[in-house]
Amino acid sequence: MLAGYHVYFVDVQDTYLKWAEWACKSRGLNNYTIINNTEAKSDLGREPFKHPIAGVVEWSCFEHFDDPIAAITWARNILEPGGAFITTTSIIEWTEEKKQEYIIDCGEATTAKLMSKEFSSVSRDFFEIHDFPTSHADVLIKK
Questions:
Q1: 82 partner at 20 to 30 Å CA-CA among 28, 107, 125, 127?
Q2: What is the pLDDT of residues 47-65, one digit of tens each?
Q3: Domains of the chain, with CATH numbers?
Q4: pTM score, two decimals?
Q5: Angstrom distance (rounded) from CA 50 to CA 118
């Protein structure tokens, strides 16, 4: 499935990066780069990508950025046209329970930004949204 692609794993936690490296090696994937980017929350401009990439997977992390709009803009900017952005954070049906979960996880200020009309509008302006009701994630395709 990943033949012909170079895969980047960027995280701030060594545990996840060690798992990613193990997963690549155990599956015979040799074309990957592991990056511990402890500055990721504050410096989205320092990504290692020299050219647009085919896909970004964001799994429960955008809520930890101080500026979610900058984070989704970064994802759009590094993707090639038609590139996939798989996300658990960017498109959320905001029930009261979901709102409380995010407030506990990342605080009221960030939750308010994620729930804002501006964030929703930017997400929808940048991407075609494909919702899969049986999945925790949505697939967004760069326009």
A1: 28
A2: 556 678 888 888 877 787 7
A3: 1-38 (no CATH), 49-142 (3.40.50.150)
A4: 0.73
A5: 29
